[in-house]
Design brief:
Number of strands: 0
Shape: globular
Distance between the termini: 24 Å
CATH architecture: Orthogonal Bundle
CATH superfamily: Ribonuclease III domain
Structural class: mainly alpha
Radius of gyration: 15 Å
Amino acid sequence: MRLFDKDIDADLLSPLTLAFTGDAVFSLYIREMLVCSANRPVGQLHKLSVQWVKASAQAKGMKAVLPMLTEKETEVFKRGRNAHTSHTPKNQSGCDYHYATGFESLVGYLYLKGENERLSLLLNEVIKHFGDDEVEKKP
């Protein structure tokens, strides 16, 4: 469900614009998941969410769902992965950062296309591929 009701052709947007949107969508998804799993102090929620939205975690999740992608989704991911960003954050590998950018591009693309079921399916699959040693998971 898009909140802003205006038609947009996501195919015409740059991969970094898609990633900008996808970053926010994934962050909201993770925040909702954490809030729904247990009532926690806000500081703890923030600390947990950072574990999920960091580049290395997104890269690992993206690698897990790559075989599930359609041809178009793979194309969107690759455009995002190969996009020239202005920087690489400290404490992140370049490879992870590029995979994370591709992941965020895909999330942004599916969100803007209104493909909510597909987006949900892929994000739920990403969540399954995090080890208990990486993030705290509660049912």
